[in-house]
Backbone:
């Protein structure tokens, strides 16, 4: 079978028995979603409303059956209805509305279908306003499986396929939980450009995985068969709590509270301080709480189809980022994390999941807290192909300073604007990756894979000109990580600009990660 | 002047000198708006000292306008073998190198003043908002020719994100 045929033919011709793919859902035909979908998507709100109506009508019902002397008509529609004997009509209307809603839900479920071919994933939906969403498989930035608490009761899961672009994800909600896992495997396999032969070899693995979903609630968050255990980095609860207590935000919060306490004693007023403090505590406390819950049972592991990040206690979520979808990586250390030697890792990605339930942190913080060994292991997962030498350079980049490890640092005259960090402030390169190291108090190291850099820039303002300095920029897709480094020697910066732009050009030309398992790619 | 950023051996293509007029007119408009805004405190407070503010704004804007020709001359670009090189800025210098394969789209825009003198702006858009390569002041024919050339170059070096 030639590659030409594989590209051209619909996939079901090539995979007739269904033995190759883990599920039959990725066969290029239109499929429907989990039957409980309407209930899970909006029905729960409806049930809650009904429950509310019944509970608030309880008093009226009691009055009705036990013969209240007279209903007091004070504008409550329920009282009005019972007092004027219109209850049967109202009940009839409610029943009609209920039936109508059920019919609409059923019809919308009927027309909400999806299909996955070897090129695209498509979802069409809508009764009156038809919509069709299409995502190209080679532009997939990540596939996320979310299992909200209610959906887990029904054994359902939501599959979010992120394609490049802002809020450009294709959602399949909901699928049965086991099928979601299998389907993700299939989509990744189709997207990876795997030939049929390899896929057939991989299939027993996939099948066993599909039948793995036993005892959903007690099963470990990450299937031990799925990723080799030595590639798994976990975050323990104790460390997570510690990391939040020592976080800069907590520190800021305590300082604010202390200031407010001093202010209230000094001015002998409480109200103003409370007005100032309460929203602040709510906001910062909420941030820390979300950070905590989003990092519970956190694990990050390497799979053949990319990095897998999972977390969650009641609502489970796990996401697979195929190779080459990480545009920049930043290792950084809030100041108090220095004591235990902890770090966090953030990344930039070309897509953002739908805002629902997905805070910025989930999308961009890939390691909420870890020690240096964890960090190096996660960097190994995020930037595959790093050798022993490179690991040494990375280590120097995280904790070191000076020229060791091939870093080009700021010159001594830069101490005027980088008083503490001028010896640490510098750049280096390991094969395929640009390293920017900065900060002596808030230490951070930014890594950009050359194949992902969009452009290279260099800039200089009047102050820098007077000091013969310049700033270099590595432009990547938008995100929390900004890859730029100031206070570099002018000529060193120009040299960086020249070599980095050549490197990026050649890395872009040879990059093949959009079909990461296709023949000819190194993976 | 040796401390300025410069790339040796690069023959820069410059933008049309007529762009000076476009830039001057838009800067004058901006200056008038700023002047009017800076007069407000003086009008509202009747404190004579506030009149310093519009004077300062006026002096700064005159300087900005005086340097427009040099700023326009500082804009340059070059099509190298594999990337587009772009520079601009006099006081705040900025150089960008964008590989052709990174092109997502090319925009040609023409403001009212630009149109009057037959110029247009070309934006080279990548997946990174911060790349922001915008070559102003190109004659329309040149801009269209450049666009077609860049699109063709990007096509031969097509890459993922």
Residues:
């Amino acid at each position: 079978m030639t590659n030409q045929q594989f590209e051209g033919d619909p996939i079901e011709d090539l995979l007739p028995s269904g033995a190759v793919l883990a599920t039959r859902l990725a066969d290029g035909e239109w499929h429907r979603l989990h039957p409980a979908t309407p209930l899970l998507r909006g029905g729960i709100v409806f049930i809650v409303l009904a429950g509310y109506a019944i509970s608030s009508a309880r008093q009226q019902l009691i009055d009705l059956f036990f013969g209240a002397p007279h209903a007091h008509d004070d504008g409550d529609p329920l009282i009005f209805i019972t007092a004027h004997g219109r209850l049967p009509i109202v009940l009839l209307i409610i029943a009609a509305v209920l039936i109508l809603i059920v019919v609409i839900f059923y019809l919308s479920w009927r027309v909400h279908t999806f299909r996955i071919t070897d090129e695209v994933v498509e979802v069409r939906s809508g009764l009156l306003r038809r919509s069709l969403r299409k995502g190209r498989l080679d532009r997939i930035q990540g596939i996320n499986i979310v299992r909200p608490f209610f959906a887990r009761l029904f054994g359902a899961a939501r599959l979010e396929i992120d394609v490049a672009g802002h809020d450009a994800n294709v959602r399949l909600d909901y699928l049965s939980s086991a099928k979601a896992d299998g389907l993700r495997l299939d989509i990744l396999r189709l997207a990876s450009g795997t030939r049929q032969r390899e896929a057939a070899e991989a299939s027993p693995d996939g099948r066993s995985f599909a039948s793995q979903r036993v005892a959903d609630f007690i099963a470990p968050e990450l299937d031990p068969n799925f990723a080799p255990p030595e590639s798994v980095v976990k975050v323990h609860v104790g460390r997570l709590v510690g990391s939040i207590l020592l976080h800069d935000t907590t520190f800021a919060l305590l300082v604010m509270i202390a200031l407010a306490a001093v202010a209230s004693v000094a001015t002998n007023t409480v109200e103003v301080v409370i007005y100032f403090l309460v929203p602040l505590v709510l906001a910062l406390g909420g941030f820390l709480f979300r950070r905590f819950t989003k990092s519970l049972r956190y694990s990050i592991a390497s799979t053949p189809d990319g990095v897998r990040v999972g977390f969650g206690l009641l609502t489970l979520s796990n996401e697979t980022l195929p190779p080459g979808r990480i545009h920049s990586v930043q290792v950084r250390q809030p100041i108090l994390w220095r004591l235990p030697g902890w770090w966090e890792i953030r990344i930039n990605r070309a897509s953002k999941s739908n805002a629902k339930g997905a805070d910025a942190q989930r999308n961009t913080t890939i390691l909420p807290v870890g020690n240096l060994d964890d960090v190096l292991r996660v960097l190994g997962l995020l930037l595959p192909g790093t050798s022993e030498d490179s690991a040494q350079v990375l280590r120097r980049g995280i904790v070191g300073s000076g020229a060791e490890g091939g870093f080009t640092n700021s010159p001594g005259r830069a101490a005027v604007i980088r008083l503490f960090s001028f010896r640490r402030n510098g750049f280096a390169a390991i094969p395929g990756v640009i390293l920017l190291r900065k900060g002596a108090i808030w230490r951070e190291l930014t890594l950009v894979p050359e194949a992902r850099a969009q452009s290279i820039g260099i800039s200089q303002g009047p102050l820098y000109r007077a000091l013969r300095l310049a700033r270099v920029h590595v432009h990547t897709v938008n995100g929390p990580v900004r890859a730029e480094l100031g206070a570099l020697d002018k000529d060193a910066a120009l040299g960086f600009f020249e070599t980095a732009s050549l490197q990026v050009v050649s890395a872009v030309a040879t990059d093949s990660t959009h079909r990461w398992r296709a023949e000819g790619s190194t993976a | 002047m040796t401390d300025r950023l410069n790339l040796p051996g690069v023959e820069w293509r410059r933008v049309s000198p007529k762009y000076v007029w476009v830039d001057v007119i838009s800067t004058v408009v901006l200056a008038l708006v700023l002047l009017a805004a800076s007069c407000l405190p003086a009008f509202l407070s009747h404190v004579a000292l506030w009149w310093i503010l519009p004077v300062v704004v006026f002096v700064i804007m005159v300087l900005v306008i005086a340097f427009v020709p040099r700023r326009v001359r500082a804009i340059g670009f070059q099509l190298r073998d594999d990337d587009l090189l772009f520079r601009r800025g006099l006081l705040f210098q900025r150089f960008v190198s964008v590989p052709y394969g990174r092109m997502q789209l090319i925009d040609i825009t023409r403001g009212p003043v630009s149109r009057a003198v037959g110029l247009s702006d070309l934006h080279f858009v990548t997946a990174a908002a911060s790349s922001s390569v915008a070559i102003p002041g190109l004659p329309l024919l040149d801009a269209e020719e450049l666009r077609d050339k860049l699109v063709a170059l990007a096509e031969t070096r097509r890459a993922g994100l």
Q: What stands out?
A: The longest strand of chain A covers residues 140-147. Residues 60 and 79 of chain A are 7 Å apart (CA to CA). Residues 1-19, 195-220, 353-358 of chain A have pLDDT under 50 and may be disordered.
